[in-house]
């Protein structure tokens, strides 16, 4: 057995426990995501054989773990198609699909937006670390829509300052569960890391939580469709998961966002809706002063096909007839 390999005998008290959970408990130095990666790479064996993370243990097995370190993260060119919404010598705006990380992170260095930009031979600013060339703001992995990229350090500096002074207007569309109490509103709750679930953020009353950062979200209702409401959202701050956290705090989570309390599947007039597989959140529009000329630029991102398809099914199930007006809300 290699000197750094770990070996465990499964007790009968651990029978019926999933392999991944057994390893997490017995290897506290490994994160949950790293355990998943090791299992997928065939570096966790049950009685000498590779197994799935979900495999149930019976008791008496021998589990071995080869905790190889992660390969160093780096940005590298990949041939991944991108939808370009606007481009000039200083910047580029991309309609990012859901499921794409903006840049490499823990355990994930492939298929990123940065890699796709490098794959098209794109020159990018180098004002931040090597994993994030060109990146002046981010979208969550499962949020689609418009994202602004700097091609050079001059543009990066100017755009970063515009974000800091809130000269850039960010408009989102979100489909949330339930009926909101008014036609428009404002959410002002501070945001900090959830101490119980580190993958989540938590909303706190302003001034009542040390380390929480102030956040403001303005919203207005576009349409009510069955048990959901389509809202237009203006972000005045850019906190992690801000829209998702704020609407969850109102007890109106974003449709499909199970991390923040949304149902895994909606039922509309006794019709089971398909599982969306992502949160219904789309960065619809960016409006910003051009970093070199100061001219105001507005770019709109067409909706992702899966969101449009979901809306069509939702409208049909709700017996609603305004699909054309609904889709026009994206424009």
Number of DSSP strand runs: 17
CATH-derived topology of the largest domain: Pseudouridine synthase
Radius of gyration: 23 Å
Strand content: 25-35%
Shape descriptor reads globular
Structural summary, described in words:
Strand 14 (267-268) and strand 15 (271-272) form a beta hairpin. The chain is 19% helix and 27% strand. The chain has 7 helices and 17 strands. It is α+β, with helices and mostly antiparallel strands and 331 residues long. It has helices at 19-26, 32-40, 113-119, 153-164, 242-249, 305-318, 323-328, and strands at residues 6-9, 44-46, 49-50, 62-65, 84-87, 91-96, 144-150, 169-177, 184-188, 190-193, 201-204, 216-225, 228-235, 267-268, 271-272, 281-289, 296-300.
